[in-house]
Amino acid sequence: MGRGRAKAKQTKVARELKYGTHSIDLDRLRRELSTTGGPTAADEADDPAVEPADR
């Protein structure tokens, strides 16, 4: 017992996430997605796990 209040709160939060209006900064999202997040050649040179033959 005692789960009713927690379940009601979870349901409330889920409804707010699903149906709530959220302001999305599309320009900021576009900038974040356009940047490359992959490793650079300098990162691989410092990585001891990468063998010289693999570079």
Automatic annotation (TrEMBL):
Which stretches are tagged as biased composition: Basic residues? 1-12
Task: List, alphabetically, the Pfam families matched.
Answer: DUF3073 (PF11273)
- Stretches for region Disordered: 1-55
Q: What is this protein called?
A: DUF3073 domain-containing protein
Q: Where is the composition biased (Basic and acidic residues)?
A: 13-33
**Originating species:** Planobispora longispora
